[in-house]
Design brief:
alpha+beta; Arc Repressor Mutant, subunit A; five-stranded antiparallel β-sheet; 7 strands
Length: 169
């Protein structure tokens, strides 16, 4: 999923898309139906990129994108459901989260973010920062018997030498 440019702004509900950057902050557009614009001043507003958010885990932190991927395959409850039901759901999608550090309000916020993002096309796009497994480093070509070994490898460029300046007599 491609969550680049999607941010959460402290003190503002919902999610925002970063449109541009100026000297003092970012120009943001809400992801809801109203498409409100906001200029977030970096000195006063705190922005959190969704692609960088992690959740407290018992051993390692859990990436939010991994939780969203697991949420695609299960039935997501409403944010107004009982706290125990929400916690049970969250144990299903993030079984090794730290129950003491992840609050019910955090779970509600993650579910509401998922509800906003699930129908957007960017939610199904591949993450451009993740390197696909198929496009890994190409395997070196094998040298065949027909080619000499010297031709199979590229020659390194020779370093240029500087001529010493002519001495004046």
């Amino acid at each position: 999923m491609n969550l680049l440019g999607i941010v959460a702004v402290s003190g503002k509900p919902g999610l925002w898309k970063a449109l541009a950057q100026n000297k003092t902050g970012y120009v943001l557009e809400s992801l809801d139906d109203k498409k409100t614009k906001l200029i977030a001043n970096l000195s006063t507003a705190k922005l959190a990129a969704l692609s960088e958010i992690t959740i407290f885990g018992l051993e390692d932190d859990i990436r939010l994108t991994d939780v969203f991927e697991r949420m695609k395959s299960v039935t997501v409850p409403n944010t107004k459901d009982d706290g125990k039901k929400l916690r049970a759901f969250f144990f299903e999608v993030a079984p090794d989260h730290d129950e003491e550090k992840v609050y019910s309000s955090d779970i509600k916020k993650i579910i509401s973010w998922y509800q906003i993002l699930k129908d957007m096309p960017l939610f199904e796009e591949a993450d451009p920062t993740a390197a696909p497994a198929e496009e890994a480093a190409p395997a070196p070509e094998a040298v065949t018997a027909e080619q000499p070994a010297e031709e199979a490898t590229a020659e390194a460029p020779k370093p240029k030498t500087k001529k010493a300046p002519a001495k004046k007599a």
